[in-house]
Design a protein that fits this description.
By secondary structure, the chain is α/β, with parallel strands linked by helices. It is about 30% helix and about 25% strand. It has six helices and twelve strands.
Length: about 220
């Protein structure tokens, strides 16, 4: 397994709250605000394949025929500027993405045909879902560019992790440090749980393993 794949596997073993705390400790904005799973059971980790939308021109461009260009294991990341009145993902894309082994889809906007992603277990994370098409309303502006997902910058190749609590992005240039800090936080919290289960008072366990400093931003 390559170092790149190993870091995706490391991210997959961590939850988004732990990764969020690590991002805070390092002063990195990576929490995708208001981006939620369409089902609480959805789990996802992979590297970003990005696409940016804009309002439709005259004549209109397309919403995109890109899915066959996305590598298996990637996360499709669609920036529709947070629009909630026009969808950019539906059942055909869900079916093909699931069949191709794509890790999941993250949308700064909304999706439709939610029933299929639920029945297939294909992870979709978005602001909400609604039925109105994006055709003739939005069009592809660019692929393979940095995008905005819930106030967080996502560049091609960044790691995204999604679970019940939402989505975080781990910038590629910081991923080794973010993952290491997250693993340290997870270990400390596990020690606190073990101590509490053995009869140690929670306040004492938290003090011993420096719980209240776990998310405190590091100073140079």
């Amino acid at each position: 397994m390559s170092d790149t794949d190993n870091n995706v596997a490391r991210a997959a073993r961590l939850d988004t709250p732990t990764l969020s705390d690590a991002l805070d400790k390092l002063g990195i904005v990576g929490q995708c605000y208001k981006i939620k799973p369409r089902d609480a059971s959805f789990r996802m980790a992979g590297r970003a394949w990005t696409l940016k939308y804009g309002p439709a021109a005259q004549p209109c461009g397309t919403v995109g025929d890109y899915i066959d260009d996305v590598a298996p294991g990637s996360v499709v990341v669609l920036d529709n500027n947070g629009r909630e009145d026009a969808t950019v993902w539906g059942d055909i894309l869900t079916e093909i993405a699931h069949r191709r082994g794509i890790a999941g889809t993250v949308i700064n906007g909304i999706n439709r045909d939610t029933h299929l992603c639920l029945s297939l277990g294909y992870p979709v994370f978005s602001i909400d879902h609604w039925m109105r098409t994006g055709k003739d309303r939005v069009q592809v502006e660019a692929t393979g560019v940095p995008v905005n997902i819930g106030g967080a910058r996502v560049a091609p190749g960044d790691i995204l992790k999604g679970d019940t609590d939402g989505v975080v992005v781990i910038p590629k240039e910081h991923e080794d440090r973010v993952l290491a800090v997250a693993e340290e936080i997870e270990a400390a919290e596990n020690h606190i749980r073990e101590a509490a289960r053995s009869g140690v008072r929670l306040d004492e366990a938290r003090k011993q393993f420096k719980y209240h400093q776990l998310q405190t931003r590091e100073t140079p």
